Amino acid sequence: MKKLLFLSLLPIIALADCASLMAKYEAPEPESKTMKQIERWVNKKVKDAKDAAVLKECMVARAADNPNQVSVAGK
User: How many CA atoms lie within 13 A of 56 on its CB side?
Assistant: First the structure.
């Protein structure tokens, strides 16, 4: 039962963690960047490997296919 509760809360925890990491590292808005730009930014700015992996994953999901248009890669 505890596992089920934890697994159901995992997406909420991940979103909260992503927002806090973006604030911590003063990350750019992912909707205005391509996936490659986000990967380069994370590799350059984030030194903690665990934080980098989580931040890259959540930001790439919201990255723009083309930042000049309103299209998001994760959709």
Answer: 18
